[in-house]
Amino acid sequence: MAAPAQPKKIVAPTVSQINAEFVTQLACKYWAPHIKKKSPFDIKVIEEIYEKEIVKSRFAIRKIMLLEFSQYLENYLWMNYSPEVSSKAYLMSICCMVNEKFRENVPAWESFKKKPDHFPFFFKCILKAALAETDGEFSLHEQTVLLLFLDHCFNSLEVDLIRSQVQQLISLPMWMGLRPARLELELKKTPKLRKFWNLIKKNDEKMDPEARKQAYQERRFLSQLIQKFISVLKSIPLSEPVTMDKVHYCERFIELMIDLEALLPTRRWFNTILDDSHLLVHCYLSSLVRREEDGHLFSQLLDMLKFYTGFEINDQTGNALTENEMTTIHYDRITSLQRAAFAHFPELYDFALSNVAEVDTRDSLVKFFGPLSSNTLHRVASYLCLLPTLPENEDTTFDKEFLLELLVSRHERRISQIQQLNQMPLYPTEKIIWDENIVPTEYYSGEGCLALPKLNLQFLTLHDYLLRNFNLFRLESTYEIRQDIEDSVSRMKPWQSEYGGVVFGGWARMAQPIVAFTVVEVAKPNIGENWPTRVRADVTINLNVRDHIKDEWEGLRKHDVCFLITVRPTKPYGTKFDRRRPFIEQVGLVYVRGCEIQGMLDDKGRVIEDGPEPRPNLRGESRTFRVFLDPNQYQQDMTNTIQNGAEDVYDTFNVIMRRKPKENNFKAVLETIRNLMNTDCVVPDWLHDIILGYGDPSSAHYSKMPNQIATLDFNDTFLSIDHLKASFPGHNVKVTVNDPALQIPPFRITFPVRSAKGKKRKDTDGEEDDTEEAKTLIVEPHVIPNRGPYPYNQPKRNTIQFTHTQIEAIRAGMQPGLTMVVGPPGTGKTDVAVQIISNIYHNFPEQRTLIVTHSNQALNQLFEKIMALDIDERHLLRLGHGEEELETEKDFSRYGRVNYVLARRIELLEEVKRLQKSLGVPGDASYTCETAGYFFLYQVMSRWEEYISRVKATGSTSPDAAEVATLFPFHEYFANAPQPIFKGRSYEEDMEIAEGCFRHIKKIFTQLEEFRASELLRSGLDRSKYLLVKEAKIIAMTCTHAALKRHDLVKLGFKYDNILMEEAAQILEIETFIPLLLQNPQDGFSRLKRWIMIGDHHQLPPVIKNMAFQKYSNMEQSLFTRFVRIGVPTVDLDAQGRARASLCNLYNWRYKNLGNLPHVQLLPEFSTANAGLLYDFQLINVEDFQGVGESEPNPYFYQNLGEAEYVVALFMYMCLLGYPADKISILTTYNGQKHLIRDIINRRCGNNPLIGRPNKVTTVDRFQGQQNDYILLSLVRTRAVGHLRDVRRLVVAMSRARLGLYIFARVSLFQNCFELTPAFSQLTARPLHLHIIPTEPFPTSRKNGERPPHEVQVIKNMPQMANFVYNMYMHLIQTTHHYHQTFLQLPPAMVEEGEEVQGQETEMETEDEATSAQANLVPSPTDATMIQETPGSQPESSSQPEAASIEMEDISALCDVAMAAKPVAAAAEAVTPQEAASVPAETK
User: Fold this and answer.
1) What is the predicted pLDDT for the residue at 882?
2) Which residues of 1143-1153 are buried (b: 16+ CB within 10 A; e: fewer)?
3) Do residues 1240 and 1208 touch, judged by C-beta distance below 8 A?
4) Which residue, 34, 1124, 1127, 1186, has fewest beta-carbon neighbours within 10 Å?
């Protein structure tokens, strides 16, 4: 009798599920996309949802999120919107949905673009509502929502629909809101504007009254909004309680003002309106600023607004103002005030007659103007057109404090931005690191606003561009530094000792207690500065640690950044650290200061220099490092110590912390940005406006460049003339030779270059000729001159048949200008990049090309492909530390190249010696490069010239072919070449061979002449610098290295003409910009000619760890993505060769017509089915396991045990069928799940030779840029979609697999997500249970899509799959044993003996352990599979091993494996999320 079924654990529904009930019911009734029969539109539904769900919950994010996710905006609100049904609830609902889309970072305007008709009416309603009285129909909270909506509109000017509406609010007519006197003053300043103003007036007169009234309302909108804000601000009291609605409204309003001021199109006319409203003065005098807690963020925002209102730019022209121009403007203001005082205000005579420097500080202005009466101050202000004229015999309505602040703030001297920046320490200190307002810690929800700069589409000037990036980069680094300090210091467990000192109870890999610290040098300041030029100190530590950690500490390189920390713990020995409580008070952290390593000291106290020489071996454990301290910070600390009697920070340090080198480049990048801001950074003219986001976005395309090149040599790009013709569809190809035998590559192509001044032809025939001519390409085949008789003299050739879009990308890359190539997954981006590099190298041998990538891995891939082409390796150089990973014997690093040059020099001099011997010349010509040069000149050239004069044809006699061979002077030298050298068929052929031989000899001496410098330069460092500056033609580095080393490169005089960037969409905006400026300008102009960016903005952006910077500041936007958004022309590669066509369909909807290369249909690996699996891709639904879906043992450490077990079970099943484990990768969208899956694999099958480990278990984000044949993907989440809503992450996840993709997810959650619909509609079209064919071994001959001859089994859930794999494994083991004992007659002991399995985590120490492990050969099913179920419910899972029997032939391929290696025991119990969360720190 079967055991009674255990009742399943019932899980209470989550709060969000209950709350969602009402919305979900309505969605299913009215607008859910998967519901076929929907109820008709009902306006009451919108009213009801707004009142009950949104207003009642006080605009709770959770409610709005659920609504937005259910596609409320797309499928109900906007679809049915019209002026007739418009209402307050309707408007507010749409605004809430749009704001939510921006908060989630998903496209917001798509549904409006599809149905734009009613948008103008809707927008006018919003404007009206934003100005409504706060105690009227719209509450202040609702108006804050409207402000946020308007802010999003102003920041979406690239959307035509939005721009057409917004433009009416911010164009010149808005100056109607100015006071008449101020308007007159502004028009007087710029005479051109008066003409425009008169035109506007004329046009207004022609309008009908209703339209004019409407236009006037729009023009005055922002002025009225400012007045409304001022009234709200004034209603906030100084000390009484205030509603937070008012504070939030004020914060959002200032955010809107900052955004309007920080964009040139909105700022141009608005800045004057803002100045005329005296908004800043009102704000600085308001009660809110003085409220400590409530007004803190408001004050920070206000400082940002003040910075932007006084920004160094001419509002009308958009030109940046220099320091001199800013000083002139300041002086003009003061002198005009002095003239007014002199003429009209006798009480200000002293002020009027003083010099400017004496009166332009705040204190002196207050001294002069403070004693004046309010009325006098008002009259001064009205004389300067700042206030309306005060009528006679009337008192002013403004209070004195306001009038005084108005005059003082307008005329005081401002410290220049660049001075402030230069005095700023670059390392963060404890004050900044733990300031929540500057660096938000916890997960940023996106609700509130922050005092952070935003990176949008456009910037005011290059200075503004660099400054915003500087601030954000600094804060993002600070956030990471905080995490590192908290991690390292808490691991060291600082406790208070019995005597009041510090004792460390733990240890940390990245931190060490300091034994001694002394400042050894404080250098004098430069003239005009008050901080020392450098400060150096010695830090001594005791490295009594494991060898590999000791090596890491000793391996600290020059310029690595460390942190010096002072802790004074107050907790007694043994106190436990609680990560949830504030960190600082627990460890007693007092100070943090940054420092930069100069080097480690040797026994004699000298710094050990980096270089090719081996480092000296130091005795003992004690090591001393010489470090540079930040001079600005040192000066501030010392001033504080001397003036305020504070303690000396530098006597207190007791911990030094290092960071991972890859994450530790922040200081060098900040220094680089600061240096750029201090120099006149010269961006090429053709790029300047595009980088700032203005002008014609296509102006830098090669077709619009004035220096377009007509004829280009495409070298080995084309494989044949047919390939060339196919590459230029729609063009007429004219070949200069008619003989088909001569129409072979390489080809030189002349393109029709359209000059700006085209001829105007009157006759129509002429016009046709003109277009015909514009489509004609003249192709000239040419022969590469013979390079010599040896096989290695033959040039390497490209073998790839490029598609016509790839050819367009290569052509664009060879032309001057900006080229942007969008390369979807698998479209051959790297091949295109390498061909562009090769073609530039051959077309412009004197030019130098810089290659920049995001990762070392991409750089290595590029280099491996470059080496396969015809590029002389002496011209290649790789900078940075990634060259160690290059899969080649050749070393392309600086010192590797120096060694290559020296070795090559010796080889070539040996060749000279052999040549000298063959010619019978006495002496030692091969002693140096110099003597070899003389030998070539006097011995080799003379013989060659004599030979040429004898064999060249003279006027009368025709030359004899035999003579070419007989008279050839270098026969003996070429005796080791393939014989015969001369064919004797024709004079021309033999003459070409003879010239080829001479070219070979000449090249030896040319190279020796180039290498001569390495004889003169003695040190490796000098030689490497010479290579970098003179010899190398193709220099490669990562963007990080470029940012780190800019100063050194510029100092060396590094020069380059072209830049090619790979993975451009993954590089931070600022790290893309810096490589443009790694050289000093020539005569004030940049020599940069080409900028080629290759990337894919539909895949994941740069990694930003802090959500606030990522979402609020849009810091994850790469320069590549920004260029695409502003409309810079791109070449979109449109044929992929990585994945099956069916898999490609899952992501090709995201790209412009992405198709497949022919081989994807033709090659057998793509047409064959995946063995043992019915489908080539499948979405497998995973329900709760033991009542649990996703879990979260730590914040944002999401796990899903059911999915993890299912994924591993499928992996084991595939391996048992014969799939190679290294062809399978397991991906997931969260780190928590990655650790859980790795743990399960370790326990189930990691050390089992029959199964093994997958190629990789990692996150989707980490796997970008990589691929594998089969991908198993776990999506983890069951409550909310999470960050997969970012379509870019979905594209990466779907495009990693070549042959098979199996996704495990909660289908009901993901299929409702609007952004994911195109992919999930294809996935859900197939069955949602796993379909397997257990009797089909790998590899199979079945074609993809065919019905299998074997039986298909449907797996309903994870426990069934785990049981099935267990049975299958048992059967396999039994069959294997039976096979070996029967057929091979081997004793069992021998069968079980085998090699040690690599990667085994615990070694068997005793024979007993080994014996017990052999007994436990099998990974038993999980606890999941042990859940007893009723016999009727699941016959498959309770079946005997025979039910899953596998035929003997099917596993014959695996028998050798079973014999060769002994299966190791794998733990049987299931892994809990808690165990997985406690993964060792090293792996996290």
Assistant:
1) 56
2) bbbbbbebbee
3) yes
4) 34
